[in-house]
Amino acid sequence: MATQAERRPHRPIHPLQAFLTAGALPLFVGGLLSDLAYSSNYQIQWINFAAWLIAGAMVFTGFALLGALIGLVRARPRRGWPLLSFLLLLVVFVLGLINSFVHARDAFGTMPQGLILSVIVTVLAIAIVWIGFSSLRVGATK
Known about the structure:
about 140 residues, mainly alpha, 4 helices, about 75% helix
């Protein structure tokens, strides 16, 4: 007798939160690339680009953090994804906010702290998007 595979949608991340989290990633990457461009040729406009890109990423990250907080409150006690999502987004938000404050300084005063913070925040944003989207599964067999 054949067994029927039970297919349950396993959605550890809400689609809107996934959109907001994934929307912040290219903005953080753009801020990092702008910091790298500034460190190579010292054109002040690159720091302005980085500051605006990081500010846009912080808007997305703030709303994703709010969604993660709602998901954490509504989560079942045994599931670990909402807590991990909230903590990673909180770290990204705090470090991104510090990075925004660093980029608000004079252009010459942002290096090397701005570049280092941009690298750290971008790597963490890549990690949270990777974790969030790699655990999206259609279902599993019992």
